[in-house]
Amino acid sequence: MSVSPLFEQSPEELLARRIAALGRAASLEINAQDSKHIEASRALLPGGKRIFVSHLPKQRWDDTVAACRTLRRAGFDPVPHIPVRLIADHAELDRLLATLVDAADVREVLMISGDYPQASGAYSTVLQALRSDLLQKHGIARVAFAGHPEGHPRVDAAEIRRAELDKARYAHEAGLDATFVTQFCFESAPLLAWAQELRSAGARSRLVAGIAGPAKLSTLVNFALRCGVGRSIRALGARPGVMSLLMAEQTPENIVVELSRSIQAGESAIDGLHVFCFGGYLRTCSWLRGVASGELRRLV
What we know:
The chain is an alpha/beta fold. The protein is 42% helix and 17% strand. The chain has a single domain, classed as Alpha-Beta Barrel (TIM Barrel). α7 (157-173) links the parallel β5 (142-147) and β6 (177-185). α1 (11-25) crosses α11 (253-264), α1 (11-25) runs antiparallel to α12 (281-292) and α3 (61-73) runs parallel beside α4.
């Protein structure tokens, strides 16, 4: 049966729908200090939204558990970061996962090595912690990993790719639903190249692009330098009059449109978006609601 032209959508209309769908499905990342704003965010986000809880230096596990509990009670899906190099031994990881499940019904964790030169306990790598089979013991069927399209300031790029593929393969073999969430980038090219590289190497995990939510340009540059974001920082520095814009708020509309175009054209292996809030949780929630409602249509 042919479709009447009356009901056909233009490429621009299809792209606008793609952008809105990405916005609706996007996850967010907060820190434990944002807990005081979680109740207010219920008016801005749909129930069940996946919200990651970072683990900052010197943060207590109790702070992570409390933030996850608050998110779950507000109707969201908490995903705590677990830097495995901070875990003393098998027993501590066992207790932590049990507490997260019991207190906050955690169903997914993001496991990272953490930016620590050496392990303080039993686990130097995420793969070692995965092989403990403790996720399965506690009924956690979903696991997230960090993706590094632009590398890491202290780890060789080839080693990072090997580790990403090893985690993807192990998760698949273990029956875990795995997602890679990337460090934030300021342009789409590194994200698209990274995703294609992993797909070509056989990774079946979900691949999610990390982007920076609305924030002052000076804040973004500061976090980029601290987190080792590499080549795509040139997307900021190349802007005309960039120094005069340091105190102005920047929003990631351009990269969202770029990624959406690539996905729509079938040129991208990216499966979704992850938005870093950088202390502006409610501001980011409001922006993301606008994206999900089709407010980026004007850029299509």
